[in-house]
Write a structure and sequence with these properties.
The complex is a heterodimer of chains A (401) and B (474). By secondary structure, chain A is of the alpha/beta class. Chain A has helices spanning 27-42, 69-75, 91-105, 139-143, 149-163, 168-187, 200-204, 236-239, 257-260, 270-283, 288-291, 302-311, 320-325, 342-345, 350-365, and strands spanning 9-16, 51-55, 82-85, 110-118, 208-211, 213-214, 223-232, 244-253, 294-296, 379-388, 391-400. The longest helix of chain A is centred in the middle third of the chain and has 20 residues, at 168-187. With 474 residues, chain B is an alpha+beta fold. The longest helix of chain B has 24 residues, at 191-214. In chain B, helix 6 crosses helix 7 (231-241). The chains are: A alpha/beta (401), B alpha+beta (474). Chains A and B meet through helix 4, helix 5, strand 5 and helix 9 of A and helix 12, strand 18, strand 19, strand 20 and strand 21 of B. Strand 5 of chain A pairs antiparallel with strand 18 (400-408) of chain B, so a sheet runs across the interface.
Chain lengths: 401, 474
């Protein structure tokens, strides 16, 4: 295996807007807001940035226009290289990866990543059907007919319950505990989109969006932007005393097997499993359940978070229910997950989410997470999933002191 | 001599009790029975495909050298529908595929044309498939009496189950039922006139002439499948001709299906063939602006094709539509609040054309090296990575089971929830389908499924078809 990126790049500043239904903010406003916080946090100037990557907007491309020019023009970046990347919901993580790899390669010393999305300009809840942008008559449009995100992820729950002999009632309760935990955390976070505690009973009895997933099993549909600035690890202390180091960056994109062949069991996500194994090798982590202090994972739906716990090796296969019900992933549990509220409550502006996850890990590692602050975290993991369970790209980022 | 080598039929799963229509309109139409209603994703093309698949069971499709599609309700006023049906059935391309339209006799017209083509040795196997989804205007008697259904026959001179003995046709120019290029619903003249000048006059005239031509009498007919918009009128003409209504008349399915227009006499003939043994004489009578009569005799081969779903099994396997409103929505008779979802994107005709084989006939491929079936066709094998090393593989009739599913209320649908299904095929290969003709409660992982051809999009006058999965009907 190649040497990897461990400890070659450091995060020296981050910014993240409040997420939510930000009717009075344009995507340009969101970019500027995330950028201003970043500059103040990193204590650098715009001219110090040597290259930038823009993640998203992914589902609202018309909101700012194509290419990376919206980032360059909005922030008035001084004729530096700026690139737009896209990998569905993992676009923010892709932007971050681009910046890190540029620094690690020696191509530049300081690089920026910024993710943005303005979903609430679309005029409807959720995302468009996956085939929406495909032309009718093309394979994607025909085979993807009527496929929505909740519909596709609900298929995981159906099969997971079936395989492990979990009754729909018990399964719904398990999923409700996932969401209730995130609502608790989100309520503590002033930047979160949804800031209200909800009970297991409310969650279980909510209207069904795609059986067995109800309203509270689905994440927030939000506007927002987040940004990160990275530099060579050996330079980091020049900027701040508490930089956060990148330990691993891994991405796995499906070959299409899960969609087209019967081996895939619909009780896990193959790309998460593969990316996680590589990420642990890169970061030198032997036992993820014991060594990863905290995580922000892609809880687009409660079932996604549940199976992700197994794919990340936080819980043994088929056993995540025990860990969820015992509170292992709660803020006061042994391995807190979604301390900032997750996609569920912090919200999910597609292009921004990957960097938003890193933002929480960064703040936690610096001891700046306020009411959500965890005790002495060492490694934080982010997991960002683009696509649907059987057709996905997953990014894993591990950061630490 | 030409004859019918195979038959098949299709009746949509759903039925509407006429009492529901009657009660919606305040008790104006106390008509008994129920009518068969095409599902929201069915039309005359999809039903014609279903009947043809039933008819072609166990028969090599490469034999078919003509396809005649008959209907007054083709989804297209201008554009060949038979080519879509041929594509869905995976028929050869070098065949004569054509549409018979307009007349309520389109079904018997197509059957007669097939017989003539075979007798003239212009074709060896002609597949005739006829389907109807006629609309009566809401709050009218035709809405109550019309039903949806389809029938198909394979006409040949070899291995026939019924041998054609004679045919006779007359036409009469008058307006009995019509639907102009500006109409959505079928119109008709006053019942008393069309009964006197039309049905009760023309049917006896044509039937008697046909009997005379074949040098047989009414008593020689075992079963007569006579189009009948109204069973009372059938009783009237039977009396005039001299048929024993109970013994000799095939049930026009008024109480169970309704008047299926051009498809009705063919569906009745299928029902008659289901019950018939060898050496029985059957009659099929189509009616509309004239009258078509066909007389045929069954052979020993009739016993070999009794495994069709035909009329009987399709009649038995049914689900009721709970109310009239659902019927109104399925037929698009009421403008409703659009779903809060983005509008669908445009259709690319070149993309449809490029993908016509795999798209219409659900033809995927099997890797020649690792033998893995896969869909849609790939250039690189999903399992063994072989490149461009595949053979065609048809998924439509392979045993399939449900791996997992969800019932999605978010996806825009005329009939929510949208049931999305990951379907595993017996020899390998998985396809994600919409599931149709299901009660959400009956959907269970591991259940066996079958493939059905349905409409999946409509945009700017273009109907786009693909396959869905459904619980095994019967």
């Amino acid at each position: 295996m190649a040497a990897g990126i461990r400890d070659k790049v450091a995060i020296i500043g981050m910014g993240c807007t409040k997420f939510g239904e930000l009717w009075n903010k344009s995507p340009e406003d969101l970019m500027v807001d995330a950028f201003k916080e970043l500059l103040e946090d990193a204590k650098i100037e715009k001219k110090d940035i040597q290259a930038a990557w823009q993640g998203g907007p992914e589902f609202t491309p018309g909101s700012v226009g194509d290419s990376a020019l919206p980032l360059a023009q909005t922030l008035k970046l001084p004729f530096i290289p700026v690139t737009k990347v896209e990998n569905m919901c993992a676009s923010g993580s892709e932007a971050f990866r681009g910046a890190c790899y540029a620094v690690a390669s020696g191509a530049c010393d300081i690089a920026m990543a910024l993710g943005v999305e303005k979903l609430k300009d679309n005029g409807y809840g959720g995302l468009p059907e996956f085939s929406h942008y495909a032309t009718i008559g093309t394979k994607h449009r025909i085979i993807g007919a009527n496929q929505t995100a909740p519909g596709m992820f609900a298929m995981l729950a159906t099969r997971y319950f079936n395989r492990y002999g979990i009754s729909p009632q018990d399964g719904k309760k398990m999923l409700a505990a996932v969401s209730a935990k995130s609502h608790h955390n989100g309520a503590l976070n002033p930047k979160a989109h949804l800031r209200r505690e909800v009970t297991i009973e409310q969650i279980v009895n909510a209207p069904i969006v795609a059986w067995p997933l109800g309203l509270f099993d689905c994440c927030g549909v939000s506007d927002g932007a987040a940004s990160a600035i990275v530099c060579r690890a050996d330079m980091a202390k020049q900027f701040r005393s508490d930089p956060v180091y990148v330990k691993s960056l891994q991405i796995a994109a499906t070959s299409g097997e899960e969609e087209m062949y019967t081996d895939y069991d619909y009780t896990h996500v193959e790309t998460t499993t593969r990316a996680a194994a590589r990420a642990y090798a890169e970061a030198g982590i032997k036992n993820a359940r014991d060594e990863i202090s905290m995580a922000e994972v892609h809880d687009c739906f409660s079932i996604t978070e549940a199976v992700t716990m197994e794919d990340l090796q936080f819980s043994p296969r088929g056993k995540v229910m025990d860990d969820i019900m015992s509170g292992r992933f709660n803020l006061d549990g042994a391995q807190p997950v979604q301390p900032d509220g997750g996609l569920k409550c912090f919200g999910h502006p597609i292009g921004a989410s990957g960097i938003r996850m890193i933002y929480e890990m960064y703040k936690q590692l610096q001891g700046k997470a306020d009411k959500r602050q965890l005790k002495n975290p060492k490694y934080g993991l982010t997991h960002n999933l683009g696509g649907i369970p059987y057709r996905s790209v997953v990014s894993i980022v591990i950061v630490g002191n | 001599m030409a004859g019918i080598a195979s038959y098949g039929a299709y009746i949509p799963l759903y039925r509407l009790n006429r009492a529901e229509i009657n009660s919606a309109w305040g008790g104006m139409f106390p008509v008994p029975g129920e009518k068969a209603v095409a599902s929201y994703d069915e039309d005359s093309i999809t039903m014609a495909v279903a009947a043809a698949r039933d008819c072609l069971k166990g028969i090599d499709r490469n034999k078919v050298d003509r396809l005649y599609f008959a209907s007054t309700t083709s989804p297209y006023k201008e554009k060949l529908a038979a080519s879509i049906i041929a594509g869905a059935l995976g028929l050869r391309r070098d065949i004569y595929a054509m549409d018979f339209a307009g007349s309520l006799r389109a079904g018997t017209n197509a059957l007669r044309a097939a017989i003539d083509a075979v007798d003239a040795k212009a074709a060896k196997y002609v597949l005739v498939t006829c389907a109807e989804t006629r609309l009566g205007a809401p709050k009218g008697d035709k809405e109550i009496t019309f039903g949806d259904g389809a029938a198909a026959f394979l006409v040949s001179s070899t291995g026939v189950a019924t041998s054609i003995e004679g045919s006779y046709a007359i036409f009469q120019e008058f307006h009995e039922n019509w639907r102009s290029d500006k109409d959505t619903f079928v119109r008709s003249w006053e019942e008393r006139f069309i009964r006197e000048a039309g049905y009760t006059k023309l049917v006896p005239e044509a039937v008697n002439a046909a009997l005379k031509q074949c040098k047989i009498t009414v008593a020689d007919i075992s079963k007569a499948a006579i189009f009948a918009a109204d069973p009372r009128l059938l009783g009237n003409v039977a009396g005039k001709i001299g048929f024993d209504a109970f013994a000799q008349l095939q049930d026009p399915m008024f109480m169970t299906v309704g008047n299926t227009g051009a498809a009705l006499p063919l569906m009745m003939l299928v029902a008659a063939m289901e019950d018939a043994g060898p050496e029985q004489r059957l009659m099929c009578v189509g009616y509309g602006d004239g009258c078509d009569v066909l007389i045929m005799k069954t052979t020993e081969a009739i016993e070999k094709i009794k495994d069709r779903r035909g009329i009987k099994r399709h009649l038995e396997a049914k689900k009721m539509i709970p109310n009239y409103l659902k019927y109104v929505l399925w037929r698009g008779l009421m403008e409703t609040e659009p779903p809060p979802r983005p509008p669908i994107n445009h259709i690319s005709v070149p993309a449809l054309w490029r993908d016509r084989e795999w798209g219409l006939s659900l033809t995927g491929q099997r890797c020649k090296k690792c033998k893995t079936p896969q869909y849609p066709p790939q250039r690189v094998c999903v399992i063994c990575q072989s490149e461009d090393n595949f053979e065609p593989y048809h998924f439509t009739d392979v045993k399939a089971t449900l791996n997992t599913f969800s019932h999605d209320n978010l996806a825009a649908s005329i009939d929510p929830p949208t049931t999305i299904a990951a379907v595993d095929f017996a020899e390998g290969g998985r396809i994600i389908f919409n599931m149709t003709d299901r009660d959400p409660e009956e959907v269970k992982t591991g259940m066996p499924l079958e493939m059905v051809f349905r409409q999946v999009h409509y945009w700017e006058g273009i109907h786009n078809y693909w396959w869905k999965c459904a619980p095994i009907r019967c």
